[in-house]
Design a protein that fits this description.
Layout (H helix, E strand, L loop, with lengths): L2 H7 L9 E10 L5 H14 L4 E4 L14 E8 L1 H14 L3 E2 L10 E5 L19 E8 L4 H4 L15 H12 L2 E2 L1
Parallel strand pairs: 4-7
Antiparallel strand pairs: 1-3, 1-6, 2-3, 5-6
């Protein structure tokens, strides 16, 4: 019996139901300063959370990037905020997603070219237009045991989320068309 069929038969077991673990929204502007501050302001208005700055890991002279220079901002969403943001982000994509966006463990990522494509967002000339990357980490309840620091342990095969399970969950939950 494959993993995807065993999970569908035991859908009454809450510990085997897939869920959205976290959503990470990233805007990379490539330079620090006023442009980065505008991107941070945009992320805060879109998500309702204060973003964190991310710095360059190494110096690239040809591009004018210095090590430890802030050049991106990021927000991590969990719970209901993550689901609400995903619904709006999927509408910006036209409720379509490619199956190639999913990795073997059910996580997926996609990009939004212009933030004004998100429903309910209007163009503000003071902020400008930014694109963003959205990375979604899917898991099952109890999978945290594998990642935590204290009393870490392995998890069984049934607890590992398969790609097909994640695709089916996203189709049903967010009413997406996955090709």
């Amino acid at each position: 019996m494959s993993r995807s069929t065993s999970a569908s038969k035991s859908s009454s077991n809450q510990m085997l139901r897939p869920r959205v673990g976290k959503v990470v929204v990233n805007i990379s502007v490539g330079e620090s300063g006023e442009l980065l501050e505008r991107a941070m302001k945009l992320l805060e208005t879109l998500t309702g959370q204060k973003p964190c700055k991310r710095a360059a890991k190494k110096t690239i002279k040809d591009w004018g990037i210095r090590k430890r220079e802030p050049m991106a901002c990021i927000v991590t969403l969990r719970g209901q905020r993550a689901k609400d943001f995903l619904k709006r982000a999927f509408e910006a994509l036209g409720s379509k997603l490619s199956a190639s966006n999913f990795d073997p463990y059910g996580n997926f990522a996609f990009g939004i070219k212009e933030h004004i494509e998100i429903p309910g967002v209007k163009y503000d000339p003071k902020i400008g237009i930014f694109g963003m990357d959205v990375c979604v980490s899917m898991d099952k309840p109890g999978y945290r045991v594998k990642r935590k620091h204290r009393a870490r342990s392995n998890v069984g095969k049934r607890q590992i989320l398969a790609r097909e399970e994640a695709i089916n969950h996203v189709k049903e939950t967010f009413k997406l068309e996955i090709s």
